[in-house]
Every structure is written in C-alpha cells, then in structure tokens.
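Anyone up for a design puzzle?
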C-alpha cells in the first residue's frame, strides 16, 4: 500500500503521487525479470520453464481523480523462486528498493510512506537425493522420468519442515485459471487410482 500526499496535479512537485511512486516499485519486477532472463541459469533452474525466478504484479488499484496526485495505490508483488535462489535474499532486495522509493517520497512529504504486508510464502521444492516420497510415487505410477513444474504447491513447505515431498496429481496447469478450466475424467480417475494405491501401501 503506497500512501501519497494529495495536491492538485498543477502543483505536482508539492505532492506525492502514490501511483507514480508505486510504478517505481512495480518497475523493480521488470528489471529483475530482464536480468534473470539474460543470465545463464543454473543446472537446477534450467530444468524449469521459465528457467529463472519471476516477479509479477497482477493487479493495481488506486487514485482519486485524474487531476489529483493519488493518495493511495495498492498492488501485490509476487515472486516465484526457482530452487537454488534464496527467498530471503530476494525479499531483502525488494524491501531495499521499496525503502529507497519511500525515502524519496518522504523527502517531499513526511506522511508519505509504503506499507507492506506479507500474505504468504511458498518455498520452492528442491529435488531430493533418493527421496522417500519420490520413490513411493514412482513405485505407484511406474513413472521413472524427471519432471518439474513452475507453479507453487505446499510441497516446499512440507520439505522445509523436514518431510520428504513430491508433487503428483491429475490435470495440466495449461488448463488452470481459464474461463473453461477443466480436468478430464480420465485424469481424475488416474489420480483416484494413485490415491487408493497410496492408502493401501501406507495403511
């Protein structure tokens, strides 16, 4: 939440536009994505598509009127870290940029500020050497290939808590978050069969 200071836009230098200052923070994502895209990925990151950590803002709202410097601007900054990138380091880099923008805002008006709330954290799942969960799922499915996904799941949280973890389930991310989002009956039945076998093996 970027909090600005409202003035008539004809007096722009005396005010702080939350939207214009928010744009500086959002632009951090553009610079990071460009740098990550240009860098040589690690062997682990190269398995993913895309093979680098991505930054994203999906929604922005704010402003009062077209001729008033915006009092408020809200957006959510999201980053999806590939295994090997330290989430804490990424967060600190972002917060340092936010602090720099905020200093510039407060040089104009002391009440201007940036308020940050962390909504959630999903650590990346890192491949395990001889992972127990992976071995169990391979035994059930018969799939001995190496697969990765570029979206977040709870698996990284379980792994961070000390559990062996693997991602396995029906459906395709290409069909997710679409107006006609779907899963086929065959995919559902395959997932059901895996769960029944899992229960049988662990029961």
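Challenge accepted. My sequence:
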């Amino acid at each position: 939440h970027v909090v600005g200071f409202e003035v008539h836009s004809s007096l722009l230098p005396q005010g702080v536009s939350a939207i214009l200052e928010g744009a500086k923070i959002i632009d951090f994502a553009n610079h990071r994505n460009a740098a990550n895209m240009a860098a040589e990925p690690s062997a682990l990151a190269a398995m993913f598509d895309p093979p680098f950590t991505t930054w994203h803002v999906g929604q922005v709202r704010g402003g009062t009127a077209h001729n008033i410097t915006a009092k408020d601007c809200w957006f959510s900054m999201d980053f999806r870290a590939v295994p090997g990138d330290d989430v804490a380091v990424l967060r600190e880099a972002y917060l340092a940029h936010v602090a720099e923008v905020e200093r510039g805002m407060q040089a104009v008006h002391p009440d201007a500020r940036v308020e940050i709330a962390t909504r959630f954290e999903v650590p990346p799942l890192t491949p395990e050497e001889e992972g127990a969960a992976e071995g169990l799922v391979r035994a059930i499915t018969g799939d001995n290939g190496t697969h990765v996904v570029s979206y977040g799941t709870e698996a990284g949280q379980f792994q961070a808590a000390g559990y062996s973890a693997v991602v396995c389930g029906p459906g395709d991310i290409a069909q997710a978050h679409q107006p006609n989002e779907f899963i086929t009956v065959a995919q559902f039945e395959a997932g059901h069969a895996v769960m029944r076998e899992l229960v049988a093996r662990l029961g």
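A detail worth pointing out: Strands lie at 2-3, 54-62, 72-80, 113-114.
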